[in-house]
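Q: Start with the shorter request: fold the first protein.
A: Done. Sequence, then structure:
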Amino acid sequence: MSHNAFITETDIAGDDSGVLDGRTVAVKDNISTEGVRTTCGSAMLSDYVPPYDATVVSRLKDAGATVVGKANMDEFGMGTTTETSAFGPVTNPVDDDRVPGGSSGGSAAAVAAGDADLALGSDTGGSIRCPAAYCGVVGIKPTYGLVSRYGLVAYANSLEQIGPIANTVEDAAELLSVIAGPDENDGTTREEGVDADYAAAATGDVEGLTIGVPTQLVGGRERAGDDPAEGGETRAGADEAVVEVFEDALDAYRDAGAEVVEVSLPSVEYAVAAYYVIAMSEASSNLARFDGVRYGTSGGYDGNWNESFAAAREEGFGDEVKRRVLLGTYALSAGYHDKYYKQAQEARAWVKQDFDEAFETVDVLASPTMPMLPPELGESLDDPLQMYLADANTVPVNLANLPAISVPAGESDGLPVGLQLVGPAFGEETIIRAGSLLA
């Protein structure tokens, strides 16, 4: 095993008669595996062993897959580079000096390096699509409710989904067919997708497809260091090197018979801010259980429960998790709920409305998955704002609860560039069809 992609190596074989018989799968370490340590990349859960399998893991076993490891990740899914793990950073198999993306960086690196045929990640604001783009593989973020979240350690319940990572669209689609479908243990799952054969949609035939390109997600990105208070901007868009590869990919779609048109999604200007207020607020609530009593490393009791809880969290949580919990708690506190959380939810509704209107005229939306090439290790850690803004193209999809796929679009200076395709709710077959032209 290489690139620090695994926290725990396993050899859990499923039934020998399923559709994934003989296939190896890496499972992100925030997805419960019975009898196998599940850490969420955190010292807080360094010794936690779940007593049950997540629904998706049970379905993997039933399909005959062999789980070969628990994949490294940003702590509790909070990060874009897989450098915040308590077990050390993951390196990118394409270039060991660069990050693999996050937070499902271990899952993507395992597939890209050949350590696993397939992988499961979770995507709260791009955490499957980002590492897929940076590692040159395929990642699918399903429609919210298509895949059960039972057994997924919660970060932001209203945003996150488990999804597949693979080397090809067809392989990712095959894995999606295995894990999709309703689950009595998860009340948010839906009946759509039952018995769907998503791999059959990977035809590569895009004749007659209309692809919309949101202008806000392509050009004009300014670095996070350009302070808006000093006249700079932090709007969405992509770097020139990324845009060049993206435009070449669009030409491939035109040549294959698709129509490419520009569309506008004005609300995405506010999507990153809205996303982080909502995600951090939900995280502050979800992570309250990690107090050293119910879950997590004990801080030791000296007669003061408040100091004991604080000691457990000081010892168990890393800097990024602490930052997000504090910001989320602040956003939900008395006097600030309406100012931040309520407005973020209103912006979320606007984002969904913009997407719904766009899909009245186009079949899918296309953009660069990530607005920049994979950063070097350590480059993003001292500038959290730049790391947050890197999610500008992916977080709107989670706010609107829509499906999206990242496929390799090409390379710039030897580094992978991903193309993101977004579809309407439960439009997985359409994005798989479109994505399979390139991968």
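Q: Next, the second protein, separately.
A: Sequence, then structure:
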Amino acid sequence: MTKAELIKRYLVFFLSLWINGFGVALVTIAALGTTPISSAWYEISLHTPLTFGMVTMLGNLILITSQYFMLPNRKDKKALLVLFSQIPATLLFSISIDVNMFILQSVIPELNFYLYRFVLLITGSVILAFGVALEVKADVALVAGEAFVKAVCSFLHKEFGIIKTCFDLSLVCLAVIIGLACTDFTYVESVREGTLVGALMVGPCVRLIAPHLKFIDKFFGTAETAIKEQSAFAFNPVITISREYGCGGRVLGKMLAKKLNLKFYDSEIITLIAKETGYSEEYVSRNENRLDNALLYQMIMQDYAVPLDKSLSKQDALYVASAKVIRKLASESPCVIVGRGADDILKDNPLCVKIRLFASFESKLDRCLNTYHLTKEKALKAMNLFDKRRAEHYAHYANADINDIHRYDLVLDSGAIGLEECCDLICALFKNRSSNVNSAAQSNQKL
């Protein structure tokens, strides 16, 4: 990263902090509760002479100081630099909260109409999501809350998701305790219905806004770099197979690999992901399609002032590792890859043939009973469970419907036409695709 790009990224980062402060202020002004991460700081400000921003600053300074005592090596200059870099970010965010609270209180009339307050809450949540999306794009620093959780995880050797959830819940509980203690157990202003509504809204809004911020790459100067990296990527012919459970995707993949003399990858990827992440193969196999912690983290307990890729849950880490492994395999040699959202991961590969398999309920059940040798009870449970997990996983990471036929080159009913016929059709398409792309490449070279 060049010095000029780094400066631009920090400018966007500081802008995002100011926008985040404005979003938090607007949500708070609505008087329906504030964001989970800010609830304790706001509740304290209501019962002391200190402003919301001042308490936010002091609270984060306590978190920064706590991190210092958890450092494995307090003489590590790089670690200290990361630690102290949180101070200006916290200062700017705190000032933004106070300045925007002052402005909003001056221009917004007294809020007696509930619907009006709710509209302000929704608007503030959307603005907060925009600020987070900008911060994700900047990708240069952590704020105190997020860095504190990471420090605790490292110090206690615990999973990030668990510590993060405990930390956020602790702040909400602290806000409730302070509010009740200071009002004779009658009222808590910082934690209300708006706290939940805002928390649930910001995550999805970030996902909607983020794809529309690609223009910022031009400001950073990373667009040209990305094009160069993409052109340097070695594209190979690849067949990806997305399937419903019981359609015979693995069997078909092996047939294709043998007939076309391609390498085959399905459960073999688990071993490679385990090496990439350091997790056991058993853990990868059990968790690679699960979203429980990742969704809880992103949708409910996310610290909205932090880039998502700076705070991966284990499920997110598994997906990132899987994507790296799949792209590496596809760049090394022609192959067949079953599942794991490979069609989306390799969507920039013009030589990738994307297949979707489906079948009737009766056909899938018959295969489960006679080929997989499952009992009817286990077969029905597996069909429902695996299809649901795969659809949720694909929707979460590809941001698309796994059953959308427009995302595939060929959609086949394996039960109706049989795996042999499916294999012949895919082979024909694969050879035709490779031939057309090669012909186009040769024509371009001549031009």
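Q: Describe the second briefly.
A: Residues 414-446 form the longest helix (33 residues). DSSP finds 20 helices and five strands in the chain.
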